[in-house]
Structures are given as C-alpha cells and as structure tokens.
Amino acid sequence: MTGTLRGGARAVMAIALMALLSACAQTGTRSASNGPYYNRPDSTSPPGPPSDPWGPWIRDASRRFDVPELWIREVMRQESGGRANAVSPAGAMGLMQVMPGTYRELQARYNLGPDPYHPYDSIQAGAAYLREMYELYGNPAFLAAYNAGPRRLEEYLWGGRGLPNETRNYVSRIGPRIASAAPNRRAAPEVYAAAEMGFYVPAGPRPVGSGTALALRDQRDTPAPVQVA
C-alpha cells in the first residue's frame, strides 16, 4: 500500500469520516493493562489457532471499523501472505503493508500503538484505511486507492492518467474474491457513481463518456454541511 492523504482528498476525508470517527471513539475502550492504546495486547504472538492465526484480531478490527472480515483477510493475503515482519521494497510494513506516513496518520486518528509491525496495530491500521478508502471511492475502487494511494487513483479517475499495472492486477485479483461481502454502513451512491470502476481495469486513461463523473467530482470537492444530531 502506498500514499498518504493530501490536498482535496484530506479535506473530503474529514467530512466523509466524521460519523465513523464518532462511532470509533464510542467503541474505543481502554484498560489499565493495555495502556493508552486502543485495546492493544502486549503480545505479538498469533492469538488464534494455526488454521487462523490472526482471526481474533481480524474480527476485532472488522467490528470496530465495519469492514467485512473477508476484505481484511484477502487484502492481508495479497499484501503480506500473513507475515507480520513483511516489508516491501517501497517501505510498506507489516501484515497489512502500511506505509510509514500513512501509519502515522492512522495512529493519531485511531489511537494505535507506535510499532507499525505489531500485528494487532497493523490489522487495525489496515482495516481503518480500507474503510476510509471505501467511504471515499466505493467498491472496488477503494482497492486501487489502498494499493496506489488516493492521489494516484484520483489522477486516474479525473486526471487522464492510467493506473499502474500492479494496481490493475491488484483490483482484478482481490475484487472478485470480496464481491460477496459488504459493510453494514454502505458508502453513498454518489461515491460509487463518481468512482465507477470494474474489477478489470483496462490500461490507459479512464474513458469518460459524459459529464457525470466530472460533475460528481466537483460536488465532492465542495464541503458538505455538517449535520449535528
């Protein structure tokens, strides 16, 4: 996974994730034994049986961020093969292959621990980032954002630049395997329309046959009113 959140993507994120952050804050309990970090265990040993070593922590992250377990499992399988000490040539770290800058942002937002290689925190960070990208781009475009970064995806969606072959292959491998699962809280229909993408993305710039995608992009760039309960 590459990329940190910048510019317009960061501004949109603040609005799109307000409700999610509120929900996470309500469920983010702490305990004296875990210290200041969200439910973080001291041990880095797999909490589950050999057949599903990270299962309990995957389920915890799934509940916290309303991300289907299947999404987390398939992304983890593709990213690291379940190896907690995995590191990519680009510097992505841990089970969910989170980049250093992205991890620092997620750490601050979700009260994660300081070690991006800690399996629990890596799963939490990866699940949080999957949810954030899903809220911005829908399914399966969120997979492209997770792999290449939101800025790179937006260059494809609205900037006339093709996606990297690695990202196209990433979406085509994982997308069909997770098609049967969805969060309880779905991304807005406008998100799906603006970032419309199939599992098999052709090489080259995205063809835009109408003004719909551009109009929705302008809508996304306009701050929405904050609703208060």
TrEMBL record:
Residue numbers spanned by region Disordered: 31-57, 210-229
PROSITE patterns documented for this protein: PROKAR_LIPOPROTEIN
Keyword Acetylation: no
UniProt KW keywords: Signal
Pfam family, one: SLT
Domain of life: Bacteria
UniProt keyword Signal present: yes
Signal sequence, renumbered to the chain: 1-25
Transglycosylase SLT domain span: 58-156
Biased composition (Pro residues): 44-53
Family in the record: Belongs to the virb1 family. Belongs to the transglycosylase Slt family.
Name under which the protein is recorded: Lytic transglycosylase domain-containing protein
Protein species of origin: Neoroseomonas oryzicola
